[in-house]
């Protein structure tokens, strides 16, 4: 029943005759099957609720993570002071043992409330002081809750967030505190400090990294020469001399850079800020270590939007810090993107060529139908199996051979002989090739035979027909297949865990050193980032907000791909629909 | 479309006189090239796909091949002055060291037999007994005057650059050179290996009264490097067995070493007992004294002052004579050989009631393939649980204890002299046999995976220290002598368990949802719901895993009773709503039947959830003694309420059946009668009554079952852990619901419209049409959808890695974790060493997974094709 009319059976009026009437009543109500219908509808409704609930959960958590929240200062009944961002509130069941240990008033209230109490999860930060980032506060322990002004939420380069007050700033020996220490002044000082921090990083990672890289290349030259000519051979000696010369020059460069960075560092170390938590415990840290800070309870809406946006921009454009639980995910976005692109470059020609072969060239018979079944079947093979194959064949056998042939000087350190970008892309290409084949075949089958025959009758060759008639018309289907393959590839994590994804890649797979695209490097991936931060970090609670945002990003990316598949299909369809006669 | 290039109109005659009708070569050429490229490319991809399978198989095959003989070298050794007691070869099969009973060390080159010197006789009298530690480096010699001497022999290798090769060496073979004493071997990378030896012996120590000699001896060195413990047992000529324990301590401050020697004779041995073998472990607290008749006296010497005879045990069957007794590596397994050729392995296992005085007893755990003649020599490997047994006829069998397989069968040439010495290379890759006429044979072999056979991977295996054969997966541990336990059964079970529970959750929801979407829902709703569900199918599973493990698992743990109640409450609410809906007058039903009804369903679902949440406290108190987790552990509460819940649907069905029979027979009149409202009301009341009655019946039945000994806990419901199958079932169900739903909906939708129309025209209601016309027509397609969903669930990785707890157990407990094949591969393969046993076993796991999904998918494909044919026929 495709149409829109709704089918609702209703009990019909009884006809005369006692026995027939009874039958008819009985059958009419049970024939309606109302309880069953509600069961079916309930199942569908439940399924829809699951999906919607899931999306809402991810979307809401992802979207609100970066919104600055106020800092609550909670005074406990015991007199203890706790300050933190409330992140989550929930009801929970109070066990009998815990209930017994409570004071009478609280006990009575909880019992009256069906043994349910409420609690709030405060992000207290200050991991270096408390050894914990989060703390549950039960409502029966609370005496009062306040949101005093002048409390700062401070994001640091290391140790996570700090919640507390800024006591003083010591600049070149002079201590600034009290009223002089305005937010504007602190902000401008912090901006400067961050600039210095970035300058140091640029020198240490960028320029010194460059020197180290070149130095390493030179050292490898010696190894290569030794392997080629043997130790002590005249050629080796010559290479050694050359390398020594180059190394000397590099050392000079290195020392100059080191001096420069040292200079900035010493300047940096003179500007210190003294922080104090809510109980007054002080902590001195270089100002440049502070990534962002704001008076959480004194923010206007505009300030909040500003912080929110700046956090998003950091997330999208920066490197991760704090074991991936904070900072950005740029390397992961980049890795996912490059890997998926590379995968498409591999999978597109092979998938299309295979489909062309199966549909246009191979003799349709038993063999082709078996091949078709197995291709369909392969679409259902678990992704981890492809990962196993990728590791065993691509990385160890192919990569091992490449190493032995082209990079003997780097052995036993593997170059291609371990997981990497290329092998990941190839593995995923293998994984997604059935998707492309099936989609392309369907698209080819949809091109009317008459068009092919018309072209051939006009004297075009087979290839000309395929190139000019068949492929353009099948293009929407092929594109859809490719984009769906991309969507599948981008979301796949399990095989990548075996063939080259790492939790923290020191270098991007694309950079300024020749040959610019480093196919052998391992890389970061959004999906693996979710796994890693959610499961391998010191505190899964601390990583959770980040995981939600990354999840949102990944889902958005995949939804975008799926949506664009639909749009491209529709647009190309329209284009070729016009051409029909 | 490209027109022929010469189509530009030119000035000239209107009708060209001559026109080139042949196709351009370029066109032909491109056509040919395209032809070839596409054919080759297409075949290549198809081959690549087949290649995956072939590659996996090729990696896995070595697991089952046993050992491979690589070479066999025969050579003659220089004559010896005295019979040699000990033989040792180095790791690279370069040098053989023999120690004679006169204390002379003779070195010869392995391969050529050329003498490499050695040391002159050291002892002034011939040794009467010899014992050595497990690696053969620490030795002890016993003499007829009741003294013993400790000695150490070490063959060591050193890698040097080629430039340090001394001058004037004699070539031995194409690898080795010698200066007469030290052997230099060429190794890859322009390097050489220098093999040399060292030997030292301590002064004689008296351990028996003068005049009484030492007949038999066994020796172990244990303890730490700072506090070595030397344990040795001797049997003297009087037949008395002594246990000696020498503990050497080094004072940290003064660097002085003191040695405490404890000597005690073992009690309880009968007069005239003839020992065949003595055995002591490296802590010196277990001693075995075995007689030739197979009786072993096992001593518990944990208190060295007073060793206790723990038990006597007959190791060989019948009249057979014991010929060899040896530990395997780890000193847990005992290998016993006899003169009938049988080779058995015994474990010392705890047995509280039946065991010896230390509550342990020996148990025969492995019976290995029998040899034809008496076993004369037994050599354990220093690497793993392999050992070599040689029989009187010169057959040498390489075996593995745990897997019970014979890896390699070697034999001495026909008519050679009896075996005089047998030794296995330290890396367990070579065997050297020496016959009494000074002929030697070196077999080099490769046994990379001796512990795996088809049985060891898929059947129960009796591992060392286990009380019974078991399916166990435990691939790594801290200690060296640890034996990896690689049974794939727990993993396959884990995969199946996850699949079953997730399908139990997913299949009803997906199929019922699909039927409702295809048959009952408004087309506007369908246009939103269907694509939405399809989109969910491409959701990355890592996201689901994360939500399951970090959001759902704690939630389910806190609200376990509410979740459980939800399974009851939500359907109950839906049913009540359905009966209430029957009360609504016809015209209203017709007007609200479409979107509005679907929205009502959501409201009812919401009420159901809220009710489960609110009533979870009383529910828990009523059914699970107030705490469901404790109840599941079995610590409190009774099984009756829960069993009632389980048997309720059954009893409902029974009551309903009985009622309809009674009504049929005209005994009862409960069927609804009258107009719409009255009929609806009656049917509601009837249903309510049946629910009550069946509940009562269920309670009685549960009580009966409990008194019959049926338990609700211990099977499917048991101890609760946070990462459990319930959560995995939810998450994985969520992953497969969209897939099953979409495919099943497609199949239902593909049923031709005329069937539907015909059925409705005959007066069937939509419900009757869908259940007795549409569903039977589409059933194979629906079944295929379930199969595809199952295939996906079997191979799903990230969800099980993250949410399943990864404990390799075999139980159906829904509150416990599991370890699936896929998760196991993802977790362990990155750490596995290439070509290692674990690496190959993980490939086998992948192959198993591949086979499982291939089976399921092929079945689905075949069913689908049949369905297609059938629906064409309709």
Keywords:
heterodimer; A: 581 residues; alpha+beta; MetI-like fold; six-stranded antiparallel sheet; 13% strand; flat; disordered N terminus; B: 874 residues; eight-stranded antiparallel sheet; four-stranded antiparallel sheet; 17 helices; 39% helix; elongated
What does this structure look like?
The complex is a heterodimer of chains A (581) and B (874). By secondary structure, chain A is an alpha+beta fold. Chain A folds into 3 domains: 72-156, no CATH class; 163-298; 333-578, MetI-like (MetI-like fold). Chain A has 17 helices and 13 strands. In chain A, strands 6, 7, 8, 9, 10 and 11 form a 6-stranded antiparallel β-sheet that branches. In chain A, strand 6 and strand 7 (161-171) form a beta hairpin. Chain B has 874 residues and is α+β, with helices and mostly antiparallel strands. Among the domains of chain B are: 28-61; 489-639 and 713-873, Orthogonal Bundle (MetI-like fold). Chain B is 39% helix and 25% strand. In chain B, a hairpin with a 4-residue loop joins strand 3 (95-100) and strand 4. In chain B, helix 6 runs antiparallel to helix 11 (676-707). The model of chain B is unreliable at 1-9 (pLDDT under 50). Chains A and B meet through helix 1, helix 2, strand 2, helix 9 and helix 10 of A and helix 1, helix 3, helix 4, helix 5 and helix 6 of B.
Largest sheet of chain B: 8 strands, antiparallel
Low-confidence stretches of chain B: 1-9
CATH fold title of the largest domain in chain A? MetI-like fold
**CATH homologous superfamily caption of the largest domain in chain A:** MetI-like
CATH topology of the domain at 489-639 and 713-873 in chain B, by name, is: MetI-like fold
- What's the total number of strands of chain B? 34
Strand content of chain B: 25-35%
Low-confidence spans of chain A: 1-26
Structural class of the secondary elements of chain A? alpha+beta
Q: In percent, how helical is the residue content of chain B?
A: 25-40%
CATH architecture of the largest domain in chain A: Orthogonal Bundle
């Amino acid at each position: 029943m495709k149409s829109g009319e709704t089918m609702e059976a209703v009990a019909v009026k009884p006809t005369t005759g006692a026995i027939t009437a009874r039958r008819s009543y009985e059958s009419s109500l049970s024939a309606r099957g109302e309880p069953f219908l509600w069961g079916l509808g309930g199942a569908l409704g439940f399924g829809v609720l699951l999906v919607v609930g899931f999306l809402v959960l991810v979307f809401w958590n992802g979207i609100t993570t970066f919104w600055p929240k106020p800092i609550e200062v909670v005074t406990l009944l015991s007199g203890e002071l706790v300050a933190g961002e409330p992140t989550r509130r929930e009801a929970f069941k109070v066990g009998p043992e815990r209930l017994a240990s409570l004071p009478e008033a609280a006990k009575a209230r909880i019992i009256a409330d069906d043994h349910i109490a409420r609690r709030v999860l405060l992000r207290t930060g200050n991991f270096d002081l408390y050894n914990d980032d989060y703390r549950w506060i039960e409502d029966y322990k609370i005496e009062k809750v306040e949101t005093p002004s002048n409390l700062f939420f401070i994001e640091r380069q290391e140790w996570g967030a700090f919640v507390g007050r800024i006591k003083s700033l010591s600049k070149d020996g002079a201590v600034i505190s009290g009223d002089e220490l305005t937010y504007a002044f602190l902000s401008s000082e912090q901006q400067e400090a961050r600039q210095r921090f970035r300058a140091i990083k640029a020198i240490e990672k960028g320029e010194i990294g460059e020197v180290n890289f070149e130095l390493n290349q030179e050292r490898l030259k010696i190894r290569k020469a030794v392997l080629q000519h043997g130790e002590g051979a005249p050629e080796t000696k010559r290479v050694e001399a050359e390398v020594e010369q180059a190394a000397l020059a590099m050392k000079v460069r290195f020392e100059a850079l080191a001096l420069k960075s040292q200079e900035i560092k010493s300047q940096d170390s003179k500007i210190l800020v003294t922080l104090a938590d809510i109980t007054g415990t002080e902590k001195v840290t270089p100002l440049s270590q502070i990534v962002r800070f704001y008076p959480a309870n004194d923010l206007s809406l505009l300030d909040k939007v500003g912080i929110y946006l700046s956090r998003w921009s950091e997330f999208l454009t920066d490197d991760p810090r704090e074991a991936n639980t904070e900072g950005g995910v740029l390397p992961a976005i980049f890795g996912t993107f490059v890997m998926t692109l590379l995968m498409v470059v591999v999978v597109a020609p092979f998938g299309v060529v295979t489909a062309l072969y199966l549909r246009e060239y191979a003799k349709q018979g038993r063999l082709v139908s078996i091949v078709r079944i197995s291709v369909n079947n392969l679409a259902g093979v678990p992704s981890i199996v492809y990962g196993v194959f990728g590791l065993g064949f691509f990385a160890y056998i192919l990569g091992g051979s490449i190493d032995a042939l082209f990079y003997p000087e780097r052995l036993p350190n593997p170059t291609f002989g371990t997981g990497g970008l290329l092998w990941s892309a190839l593995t995923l290409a293998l994984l997604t090739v059935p998707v492309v084949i099936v989609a392309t075949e369907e698209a080819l089958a949809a091109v009317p035979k008459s068009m092919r025959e018309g072209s051939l009758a006009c004297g075009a060759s087979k290839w000309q027909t395929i190139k000019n008639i068949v492929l353009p018309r099948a293009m929407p289907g092929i594109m859809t297949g490719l984009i769906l393959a991309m969507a599948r590839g981008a979301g796949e994590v399990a095989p990548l865990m075996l063939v080259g994804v790492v939790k923290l890649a020191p270098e991007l797979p694309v950079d300024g050193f020749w040959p610019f695209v480093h196919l052998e490097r391992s890389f970061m991936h959004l999906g693996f980032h979710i796994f890693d931060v959610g499961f391998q970090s010191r505190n899964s609670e601390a990583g959770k907000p980040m995981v939600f945002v990354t999840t949102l990003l990944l889902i958005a990316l995949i939804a975008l791909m799926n949506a664009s598949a639909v749009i491209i299909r529709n647009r190309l369809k329209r284009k070729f629909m016009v051409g029909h006669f | 479309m490209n027109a022929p290039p010469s189509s530009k109109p030119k000035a000239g005659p209107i009708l060209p006189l001559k026109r080139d009708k042949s196709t351009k070569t370029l066109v032909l050429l491109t056509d040919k090239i395209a032809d070839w490229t596409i054919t080759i490319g297409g075949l290549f991809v198809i081959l690549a796909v087949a290649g995956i399978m072939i590659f996996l198989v090729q990696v896995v095959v070595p697991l089952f091949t046993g050992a491979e003989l690589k070479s066999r070298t025969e050579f003659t050794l220089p004559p010896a002055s005295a019979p040699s007691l000990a033989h040792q070869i180095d790791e690279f099969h370069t040098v053989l060291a023999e120690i004679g009973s006169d204390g002379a060390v003779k070195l010869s080159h392995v391969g050529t037999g050329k003498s490499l010197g050695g040391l002159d006789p050291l002892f002034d009298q011939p040794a009467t007994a010899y014992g050595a530690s497990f690696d053969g480096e620490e030795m002890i010699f016993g003499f007829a005057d009741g003294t013993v001497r400790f000695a150490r022999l070490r063959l060591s290798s050193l890698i040097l650059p080629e430039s340090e090769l001394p001058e004037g060496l004699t070539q031995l073979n194409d690898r080795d050179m010698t200066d007469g004493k030290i052997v230099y071997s060429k190794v890859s990378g322009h390097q050489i290996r220098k093999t040399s030896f060292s030997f030292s012996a301590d002064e004689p120590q008296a351990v028996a009264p003068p005049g009484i000699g030492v007949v038999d001896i066994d020796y172990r060195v244990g303890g730490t490097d700072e506090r070595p413990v030397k344990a040795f047992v001797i049997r003297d000529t009087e037949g008395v067995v002594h246990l000696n324990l020498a503990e050497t301590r080094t004072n940290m401050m003064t660097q002085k070493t003191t040695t405490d020697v404890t000597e005690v004779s073992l009690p309880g041995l009968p007069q005239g007992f003839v020992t065949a073998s003595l055995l002591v472990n490296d802590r010196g607290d277990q001693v075995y004294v075995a007689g030739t008749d197979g009786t072993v006296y096992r001593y518990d010497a944990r208190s060295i002052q007073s060793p206790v005879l723990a038990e006597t045990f007959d190791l060989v069957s019948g009249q057979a004579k014991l010929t060899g007794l040896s530990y395997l590596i780890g000193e847990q397994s005992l290998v016993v050989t006899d003169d009938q050729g049988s080779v058995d392995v015994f474990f010392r296992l705890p047995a509280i009631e039946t065991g010896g005085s230390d509550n342990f007893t020996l148990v025969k755990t492995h019976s290995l393939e029998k040899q034809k003649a008496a076993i004369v020599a037994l050599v354990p490997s220093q690497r793993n649980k392999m050992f070599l047994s040689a029989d009187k006829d010169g057959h040498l069998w390489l075996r593995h204890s745990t897997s019970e397989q014979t890896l390699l069968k070697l034999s001495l040439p026909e008519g050679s002299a009896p075996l005089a010495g047998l030794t296995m290379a330290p890396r367990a890759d070579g065997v050297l046999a020496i016959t009494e006429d000074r002929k030697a044979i070196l077999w080099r072999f490769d046994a990379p995976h001796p512990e795996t056979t088809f049985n060891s991977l898929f059947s129960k295996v009796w591992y060392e220290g286990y009380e019974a054969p078991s399916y166990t997966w435990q691939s790594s541990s801290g200690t060296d002598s640890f034996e990896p336990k690689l049974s794939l059964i727990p993993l396959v079970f884990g995969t199946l368990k996850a699949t079953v529970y997730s399908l139990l959750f997913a299949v009803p929801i997906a199929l019922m949802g699909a039927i409702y979407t295809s048959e009952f829902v408004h087309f506007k709703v369908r246009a939103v719901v269907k694509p939405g569900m399809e989109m969910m199918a491409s959701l990355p599973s890592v996201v689901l895993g994360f939500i399951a493990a970090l959001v759902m698992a704690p939630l389910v743990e806190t609200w376990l009773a509410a979740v459980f109640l939800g399974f009851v409450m939500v359907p109950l609410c839906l049913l009540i709503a359905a009966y209430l809906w029957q009360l609504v007058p016809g015209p209203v039903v017709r007007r609200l039947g479409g979107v509005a009804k679907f929205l009502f369903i959501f409201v009812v679902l919401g009420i159901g959830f809220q009710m489960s949440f609110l009533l979870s406290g009383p529910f828990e108190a009523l059914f699970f003694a107030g705490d469901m987790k404790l109840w599941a552990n079995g610590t409190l509460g009774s099984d009756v309420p829960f069993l009632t819940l389980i048997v309720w649907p059954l009893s409902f069905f029974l009551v309903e059946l009985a009622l309809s029979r009674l009504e049929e027979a005209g005994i009862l009149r409960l069927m609804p009668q009258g107009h719409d409202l009255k009929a609806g009301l009656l049917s509601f009341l009837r249903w309510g009554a049946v629910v009550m009655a069946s509940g009562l019946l269920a309670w009685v039945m549960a009580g009966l079952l409990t008194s019959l000994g049926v338990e609700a806990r211990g099977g499917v419901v048991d101890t609760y852990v946070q990462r459990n199958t319930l959560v995995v079932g939810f998450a994985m169900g969520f992953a497969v619901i969209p897939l099953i739903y979409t495919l099943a909906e497609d199949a239902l939708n593909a049923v031709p419209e005329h069937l539907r129309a015909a059925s409705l025209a005959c007066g069937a209601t939509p419900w009757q049409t869908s259940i007795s016309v549409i569903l039977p027509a589409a059933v194979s397609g629906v079944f295929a959808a379930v199969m595809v969903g199952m295939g996906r669930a079997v191979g799903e990785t990230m969800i099980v890695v993250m949410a399943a707890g990864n404990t390799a157990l075999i139980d159906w407990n829904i509150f416990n974790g599991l370890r699936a094949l896929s998760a196991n591969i993802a977790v362990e393969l990155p750490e596995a060493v290439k070509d290692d046993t674990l690496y190959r076993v993980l490939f086998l796991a992948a192959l198993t997974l591949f086979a499982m999904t291939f089976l399921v998918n092929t079945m689905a494909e075949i069913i689908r094709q049949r369905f297609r044919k059938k629906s064409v026929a309709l």
